[in-house]
Amino acid sequence: MIKAVLIDDERLARTELRKLLSEFPEIEVIGEAANAAEGIDVIENLQPDLVFLDIQMPGKTGFDMLSELGKAPHVIFTTAYDEYALKAFEVNALDYLLKPVDTKRLADAINKLHVAEEKEAMAPAISSNRSLLSEHDQVFVKDGERCWFVKLSDIRLFESVGNYAKVFFGNNKPLILKSLNALEERLDEKVFFRANRKHIVNLRLIEKIEPYFNGGLLLELKGGEKIEVSRRQTVKFKEMMSL
Q: Where are the 4-aspartylphosphate residues found in this chain (predicted)?
């Protein structure tokens, strides 16, 4: 059974969507919310597998709401704003549905969810601790008007920039309002390693390791970035990597 919540400021839209979803026995609607603040509470309390999310709501948008969650569930956007939605949101949501929602498009979106869940079942999470993010979890990254859903396994580097962190994945380097220390607490240390005061690297995405100045190491990542491992962290790194 897939547990879903509906987040939309229009009560009639929620009612209509709930009615359409009744035709899909594998989907159980376990909660609703009328704005972003309520949505965060519902998601954190009920831990749904899937969220049907409106973009334009009074106060914070659906994108703003997602950026405040520590871990992003699967999301299907429901919106009346075709062009706005596609420009603002670019990568990797399960789907977006234009209102009024069409039954066939809804079926297509739910099928995408089944495909995503099958892939996840083949790559189970490393940790059962809900507060610790595994490399198979996805996070929502928002930088200005650009937004991404990103699997942690695709992030090769976090770089400290004051109270922010720059996130490196693909050709993108957005900034998020998280300190490196806060990120380190949530990341699996078997995958994400604190190389020095300013960098956390994905151990799976290291291309080359070289000896470096003062007994340290120099890591070259698959994106071409070169990161120094401090002398103190080099000892830990060698133990972990059995060098």
A: 54
Residue 171 · residue 146 · CB < 8 Å: no
Tokens matching residue 178: 């998280």
The pLDDT of residue 128 is 40
In a domain, 47, yes or no: yes
Sheet order of strands, 27-33 included:
27-33, 2-7, 50-54, 74-79, 95-98
pLDDT of 119 reads 74
* Residues 183, 158 contacting (CB under 8 angstroms): yes
Residue 133 lies in a domain: no
Look up the domain containing 50 and give its range. 2-122
pLDDT, tens digit, for every residue of 89-111?
Answer: 655 688 889 999 999 999 999 99
* Helices and strands: H and E segment counts in the chain: 7, 15
| Contact (Cβ atoms closer than 8 angstroms) between residue 32 and residue 5 | yes
Residues 13, 112, single domain; the answer is yes
Average pLDDT over residues 62-67: 90
Query: Whose CA is closest to 75, among 91, 105, 53?
Result: 53
**Rounded Cα gap, residues 209 and 36, in angstroms:** 45
Q: Are residues 109 and 143 in the same domain?
A: no
Supply 48's token pair: 């749904």
Q: State CA 55 to chain mean position distance.
A: 17
